[in-house]
Amino acid sequence: MATPLEKWVEKQAELTRPDRIHWCDGSEEEARLIIQKGMEEEKINGNPVFYPLNNEKWPNAYFHRSHPTDVARTEHLTYVCHPEKETAGPNNNWMHPEEAKKLLTRISDGCMRGRTMYVLPYMMGHPDSRFAKACVQLTDISYVAASMRIMTRMSKKVIEKIGNSEDFVKGLHSVGDFDPEKRFIMHFPDENFVWSVGSGYGGNALLGKKCFSLRIASWLGYKEGWLAEHMVIMGVEDPDGEITYIAVAMPSACGKTNLAMMEPALAGYKVWTLGDDIAWFHIGDDGRLYAINPEIGFFGVAPGTSMRSNPNMMKTLRCNNFYPTLFTNTALNLDSMEPWWEGIDEQPGKNMLDWQGNKWNLKSGTKAAHPNSRFTVSIYNAPTLSKEFDNPQGVPVSAIIFGGRRTQLIPLVTEAFDWNHGVFIGARSGSETTAAAIHQVGVLRRDPMAMLPFCGYNMGDYFNHWISMGSKMKNPPKIFSVNWFRTDENGKFIWPGFGENIRVLKWIIDRVKNRVSGRETSVGILPHLKDIDLTGIDISDEDLRKILDVNIKEWKEELEDVKKFFNSFGKRLPAELWREYDKVYRQAL
Ligand code: SAT
Ligand code: MN
Question: What CA–CA distance (Å, rounded) separates 367 from 558?
């Protein structure tokens, strides 16, 4: 008798009609074969899916060039298909599930013809964790199969675990013919099902990541009393050897990965990495909030990554273990067969190809690597990996930080007065846009909790859920806002960032441990200047004052904009958030 899983795979194969079906076991040998197939048989735009790289300099690493129209998440083609439009909310594109399935059935008819269907069984979360979820994704491209093995715990044991059960998360993925007109990423939250066609790009195609672990999982969390968030999880060890766990939400390409594995500039501090993108939170029996990272890899932005900005990532990328490392849409040095990107330590070579495969040199006047070019690498390569990473319970979080890219107004660091005020800070957060998704770069967009593109239901209800989670915790984390990106009159960043951000984390930890007092302002608690440790850096008091300043006149404009945004959720926006809004607004008058 076929299991529900086998029946489901069979049914998808009847629709998509692959030449072969390959049930993956997650082994090292299999990963090698899949990459081999990508080098020798499968093609994108006439080119091989993978090219081998210089194995001495970049062990076990491969280069991938995507279809030129397929380089970032496509939010306008991403839909959340609840039966009711209101449930999806103004923050999501919506289509009725039946209509969506009709459309995708039409597009997917025979779409895997001539190709191999890979059946990928994987866990999001450690298999021993009661928060982990068993998942199966089908895909028709080696790049996605190889990437999923780096990013998730892929193993044939998951098939045994699923056994005869219907309870597994389903993902159906096909690159189709990469036609942007036939590209859709559709979510069916009530069926634990994601269906993605026409794109091979990370967040569109690695369905365990944003699609399941955020959009669908946020909906599960809403119904079941937990949270799925777009956050870094890190441990900060202080000179006494005590580790404080912190979760940080920031929109894509704001430096989450650099932060998660930072080399602190203050002596005696050490950062331990648990995750750079996704956190699932549950309330523990002790009334604290516990976080796990459901992934086991990094899908990070390459440009800007260097020994200066992120030495631990450079070591991670050059480490050799049984997970390969992939580089997507970087430039390529043809003489040394090394990947190259803007901001890396070395100068470009003489014989370079840009991300599209065109001859390139410094005089070309274009970027060699795509601004959203990426690496896919195992977290087990990281020299900063926390020893708690595989702890099925997760780690207890003492501080939650909301950040974004704001060149003006938002102070370097602010502490919320209490949980609800913290939820307000998260909800009003915004960021100037980057290249991680297809839209205009550099405009301010509200991005509550950095979840606007990833919340799988109405954000008004999501804010309510956050408020109610706070009321259930005896010892909730303290909430903070940070902004590393304030610029001066010449457009130069005032705060040095990177490893120096430890100075801000130190203040946050000092506040968590009640070691320092703060300065109450109308927008939250700010540090006294003397409490930001500036040993060893050159930043003037005047500059520090500037980035820790609250200009209430400018805040008034900000609040008007926040109000418009809040109003878009109508009655679903919780009264608690309007109360927090009014408190700040009255003071800004
Ligand atoms: O494409 S991903 O969503 O995986 C990366 C990102 O935008 O954060
Ligand atoms: Mn992300």
Answer: 34
* Residue from 209, 252, 276 whose mutation best tests the ligand 1 pocket (most atoms within 8 A of CB): 252
CB 169 within 8 A of CB 212: yes
Atom of ligand 1 nearest to the CA of 374: 5
CB atoms within 10 A of CB 493: 13
Cβ of 73 closer than 6 Å to ligand 1, yes or no, is yes
Alpha-carbon torsion (345, 346, 348, 353), positive or negative: negative
Tens of pLDDT, residues 308-363? 999 999 999 999 888 999 999 999 999 999 999 999 999 999 999 999 999 999 99
| pLDDT > 80? residue 83 | yes
407-463 pLDDT tens trace: 999 999 999 999 999 999 999 999 998 766 666 777 899 999 999 999 999 999 999
Label residue 545 exposed, middle or buried (CB < 10 Å: 0-12, 13-18, 19+).
exposed
List, by residue number, the catalytic residues: 254
Share in percent of the chain as helix, strand, coil (round to 5): 30, 25, 45
Residue 453 CB contacts under 8 Å (≥ 6 apart), including other chains:
73, 75, 78, 210, 437, 447
The residue behind tokens 């007109």 is 181
Report how far ligand 2's centroid is from the alpha carbon of 396 (Å).
22
Of 66, 248, 299, 328, the residue with max ligand 1 atoms within 8 A of its CB, to mutate for a pocket test, comes to 299
pTM of the predicted protein model: 0.97
Atom 3 of ligand 1: nearest residue by CA position: 203
Atom of ligand 1 nearest to the CA of 436: 7
Q: What is the pLDDT of residues 378-412, one digit of tens each?
A: 999 999 999 999 999 999 999 999 999 999 999 99
| Interatomic CA distance for residues 170 and 156, integer angstroms | 16
Identity of the residue numbered 54: N
The size of the chain, in residues, is 589
Q: How confident is the model at residue 477 (pLDDT cuts 50, 70, 90)?
A: very high
Amino acid occupying residue 370: H
State the ligand closest to the CA atom of 301.
1
Q: Residue 250: name the closest of 405, 441, 445 by CA.
A: 405
Domains of the chain: 4-48+70-225 (3.40.449.10), 228-296+387-588 (3.90.228.20), 298-381 (2.170.8.10)
For CA atoms 470, 275, 134, 175, the dihedral sign is: positive
**What's the maximum distance between 2 C-alpha atoms anywhere in the chain?**
74
β-pairing, 184-188 with 78-80? parallel
Q: In this structure, what are the phi and psi dihedrals at residue 587, rounded to the nearest 5 degrees?
A: -75, -25
